[in-house]
Amino acid sequence: MAVLQSLVDIRSEQFVINRASMLDLLAQHDAEVSKAVGGGGDAYVARHRARGKMTARERIELLLDEDAPFVEFSALAAWGTPFHVGASIVTGIGVVADIECVIIAHDPTVRGGTMNPFTLKKNLRALEIARVNRLPVINLVESGGADLPTQADLFVPAGNIFRELTLLSALGIPTVALVFGNSTAGGAYVPGMCDHAVLVDKRAKVFLGGPPLVKMATGEESDDESLGGAEMHSRVTGLADYFASDEDDCIRIGREIMGALNWRKLGPGPSRTATEPRHDGEELLGIAGVDLRVPFDTREVIGRIVDDSRFDEYKELYGRSLLTGWATIHGFSVGIIANAQGVLFSEEAKKATEFIMLANQTDVPLLFLQHCTGYMVGKDYEQGGIIKDGAKMINAVTNSQVPHITVIMGASYGAGNYGMCGRSFGPRFLFAWPNSKMAVMGPQQLAGVMSIVARQSAESQGKPFDEAADVVQRQAIEEQIERESHAFFNSGRVYDDGIIDPRDTRTVVGLALSAVHSNTVAGQRGYGVFRM
What's the pLDDT tens digit per position in 256-269? Predict the structure, then answer.
């Protein structure tokens, strides 16, 4: 493989501007993440600790192996909504007893750990990641159940949590529930449906209806312990497989359960020795900027995330606005598809289609690096068959069976989002840089299209066109699309698995590649009809 050379000038004006703007965005991101890390606020965290309890993140830290990484998912879930940033739940991948697993932890300091619509989306995405990648699940349970005022948006889809847990068990993917506090109503089925359940004495409360509901429904007087305490479930119902004396003991037992699973990955391990890139990953801060109209060289990104900066480019001289080629990241083989100039032409679409099929023939995972404004439009391109060629690429992405990992480095507009394996096309993991934007098209383009349509409508009706109103309308639309395409906005709606620091791209992708190899890695051997 050829070593990618770097032409980055860290003293150039554009690099300095890009770096400063990226650092500013990262500071804004950290400030928002701190809201999630802070839970329900100092008062609620202090009250929680006064009860002798750890926070959700402290429980995760104690559960993980020493110095093990934790890739958190969707830390900004619910950003820009009436709900707390983080959506009262912490999810991610960590290593417990040398096993990569998905961890789902309720944050009881935020409205008692109750579930709102964004909590549900985040929980279900974590369970999906566990299922498709064959990763064991550890639930750290302390939740008051549904956030009742939002029950209309929760009740029906929340059943998918139970469905996913039972599917995981049927697939032989272990599920563990460590119950530290309330596990009420529908939440009671989490330990009930997990393969292993550990309940903490005098803390765990697992029941379908608490004392007030029982009183209202039956007139019966009862208390928490007799209804759903850890000792009762250990001695009477058998719901508890293990009885923990306190939170530390519960986590110890959880680690022992994981260590006794005899768990093995089905995919191959790294095929080569991991070698650090030759170019400094710190420089990724200055390569791409906030102004997505300013182009950047994607090869400079690839050269800072792949082993030894080596990249075997496929069809280098054909379809040059799309890069395709082979590399390794932390020793794992990977095929890379990266936008080089933003727009996709017919040649690029056909090149990507062939490359995806080759990756499937050789069982090599694919990494999509997105900076795409969409497929090219215009009379010549339409007559040249851009629809059919774009359809070939989307067909190939849809039917590809090797694991896909997507990183949005800049623009992700229109059908380019689809062809480059956006969220709706099921990538195993999808992460975004803080400068990224995702929308049907750019703000100026969308506002311009709306203006042209309005002008044509006025002309067809023989009415005068209000130029002043058009200026105001265009500005309002641009501001709306700018706001709704922002990385924080999309991450808040769980359209990605988290915003990452560009400097962490190699590490995060490497951990994702390791995780996908927990399952078999095998390509598709047949495709649908390609419109030639």
Answer: 999 999 999 999 99
